[in-house]
Design goal:
Blueprint: H1 6-15, H2 18-29, H3 38-55, H4 59-73, H5 88-93, E1 108-113, E2 116-123, E3 126-129, E4 132-134, H6 137-145, H7 151-154
Antiparallel strand pairs: 1-2, 2-3, 3-4
Helix pairs in contact: 1-3, 2-3
């Protein structure tokens, strides 16, 4: 496997089955593993292979690799292999950033509860109810009723949720 680039080796490990990773562990560390955690196995094997390669590099090349490693460490793991089924980048690309059921910031949502009008102002992050900020409409509904409510249901905003 030494002919493959490190990136190709890591990608190959990432696609391996659990038994394949357990065999690769045996080859890399000289002992069997009882771990069944695919992510743990492929990451540890990849690190071991990289360490083996690093030992044979010149000081200049080693410094370059360390710069790349540091950049890689700061990248969330789900973005290491864009386009794979575990890629968060792909999953969030189609997800709206704002729930369409919630009116724009500055809007007032009202509801009549036990004969009294309840008004909540939509903020950039959260909701204002009687001078206090709440993270969710459900938290506001819980404050008003004293029981657990789905905030969208309480304020009548569930209509058209599937649009």
């Amino acid at each position: 496997m030494a002919e493959q680039s490190v990136v190709a080796q890591v990608r190959s490990l990432h696609r391996m089955s659990l038994p394949g990773l357990q065999q690769a562990w045996l080859e890399a560390f000289g002992e069997e593993t009882k771990s069944r955690d695919r992510d743990y196995l492929w990451r540890r094997i990849a690190a071991k292979r990289q360490d083996n390669i690093m030992a044979s590099l010149s000081d200049e090349d080693r410094a370059t690799v360390e710069r790349y490693r540091e950049e890689f460490r700061r990248t969330p793991p789900d973005q290491w292999f864009p386009g794979t089924k575990n890629s968060k980048a792909r999953k969030t690309a189609s997800r709206p950033t704002h729930d369409r059921r919630i009116p724009p910031p500055g809007s007032v949502i009202s509801h009549t509860y036990r004969g009294q009008e309840v008004a909540v102002t939509v903020l950039e992050k959260g909701f204002d109810y009687q001078g206090s900020t709440y993270r969710s409409l459900s938290a506001v509904a819980r404050e008003i009723t004293g029981t657990g409510w789905n905030g969208f249901t309480f304020f009548g905003l569930n209509m058209g949720a599937g649009r």
